[in-house]
């Protein structure tokens, strides 16, 4: 799929964290957001967002300069050295891409990073992008760790700006009170702004760390696909999800204590 027409590349304005590559003329964009880190168990959410971007042929749109938002001693930039020569250097950027899915609909995809500093200023950059693109609908992708059986289908729960959205899409509502990440902050601010918001959350087993967890990514995209009104080829992701489950089975079968914990989870499930 081709990206919509743009007005050409713009030089970034100095001291503005939100820097545009192009200023496209979008008609009814839907914004998808994912964040590495605290909101991204098993890297499922960002894996789903990258897969979506690849499937729809998304092109660079904008980025947020990381200078004000990260402690680089915690989240360090990366360097590539080949044969003693530095060939690449990358800052931890929050990137936005875009593509048209049909004649009257576009998707903007944000693949960002859970930040360390200046949350409200970062939120201002997201809201500026929402305002300038005239975004009316957002879908955020997240994943969390839970007491769930690794061999069961990945459960998806949701948070919305309006309970009617959950009913419309047949989504299971969740209840929670406690610490939150950038998704929780943005969900609150988007709702206050009158922007339709859905946050989809995949529940993954806390006792097995597999990253990227393709099972979580697949579950998120299966739920997101009809909401975004896109048609995706999920077969490669299904194959990766099967490999992921087989890998987890090997980990469990090779650890007696872990295997007993899984049996206990099954007993609890049966008793309910």
Tell me what the structure shows.
- With 272 residues, the protein is α/β, with parallel strands linked by helices.
- It has a single domain (6-271), classed as 3-Layer(aba) Sandwich (Rossmann fold).
- Helices cover 35% and strands 30% of the residues.
- The chain is built from 7 helices and 13 strands.
- Strands 2-5-8-9-4-10-13-11-12 form a 9-stranded mixed beta sheet, sandwiched between helices. A two-stranded antiparallel ribbon has the order 1-3.
- α1 crosses α5.
- Mean pLDDT is 91; it is low at 5-14.
Concise account of the structure shown:
The chain is an alpha/beta fold. It has one domain: 3-Layer(aba) Sandwich (Rossmann fold), CATH 3.40.50. It is 35% helix and 30% strand.
Topology of this protein?
Blueprint: E1 6-9, E2 18-20, E3 22-24, E4 29-36, H1 44-56, E5 59-64, E6 78-82, E7 85-90, E8 94-102, E9 105-113, H2 119-133, E10 137-146, E11 155-160, H3 163-168, E12 172-173, H4 182-192, E13 196-205, H5 214-228, H6 235-253, H7 256-271
Parallel strand pairs: 4-9, 4-10, 10-13, 11-12
Antiparallel strand pairs: 1-3, 2-5, 5-8, 6-7, 8-9, 11-13
Helix pairs in contact: 1-5, 2-4, 5-6
């Amino acid at each position: 799929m081709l990206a919509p027409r743009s007005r050409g590349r713009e030089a970034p304005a100095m001291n503005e964290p939100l820097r545009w590559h192009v200023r496209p003329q979008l008609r009814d964009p839907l914004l998808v957001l994912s964040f590495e880190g605290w909101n991204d168990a098993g890297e499922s959410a960002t894996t789903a967002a990258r897969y979506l971007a690849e499937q729809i042929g998304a092109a660079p749109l904008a980025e947020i300069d990381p200078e004000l938002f990260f402690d680089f001693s915690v989240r360090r930039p990366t360097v590539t050295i080949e044969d003693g020569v530095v060939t690449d250097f990358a800052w931890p950027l929050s990137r936005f891409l875009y593509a048209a899915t049909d004649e009257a609909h576009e998707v903007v995809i944000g693949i960002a990073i859970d930040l360390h500093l200046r949350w409200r200023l970062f939120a201002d950059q997201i809201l500026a992008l929402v305002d300038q693109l005239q975004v009316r609908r957002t879908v955020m992708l997240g994943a969390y760790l839970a007491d769930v059986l690794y061999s069961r289908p990945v459960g998806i729960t949701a948070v919305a700006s309006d309970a009617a959205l959950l009913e419309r899409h047949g989504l299971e509502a969740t209840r929670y009170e406690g610490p939150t990440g950038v998704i929780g902050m943005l969900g609150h601010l988007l709702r206050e702004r009158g922007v339709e918001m859905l946050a989809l959350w995949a529940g993954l087993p806390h006792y097995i760390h597999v990253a990227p967890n393709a099972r979580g990514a697949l579950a998120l995209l299966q739920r997101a696909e009809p909401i975004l009104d896109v048609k995706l080829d999920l077969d490669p992701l299904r194959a990766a999800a099967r490999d992921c489950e087989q890998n987890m089975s090997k980990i469990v079968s090779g650890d007696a204590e872990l295997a007993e914990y899984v049996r206990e989870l099954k007993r609890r499930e049966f008793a309910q």
